[in-house]
Design brief:
By secondary structure, the protein is mainly alpha-helical. It has one domain. Helix content is 84%, strand content 0%. The radius of gyration is 16 Å and the shape is globular.
Length: 117
Amino acid sequence: MDYVIAFVVGGLICAAAQIVLDNTKLQPGNVMVILVCLGAVLGFAGVYEPFKEWAGSGASVPLLGFGNTLFQGIKEDIAKNGFVGVFTGGFTAAAAGISGALIMGYIASVIFNPKMK
């Protein structure tokens, strides 16, 4: 049953993003930034963690999870290093995900030989 909830929640988040794209003049990059910022705001408000517990991977896979990861990293690094944590915490917390995305993107570009338009 938990997998069904995760699947439905993740789908609803993506459907909401698609509705925003279809009914506004926002570009995909704008919507992505909004989702990341929304994840950080929900983390700050203390709402994201209970939501993630209930929804499982459906809440953590979309961009909301990335925003919350950045917020949690900043919060922890501020507690350890003070104000400098504002600048370093997000990078520390999300380094593995960002590195993985860059490496996989490079591998895909080597395999598929993309053409610029």
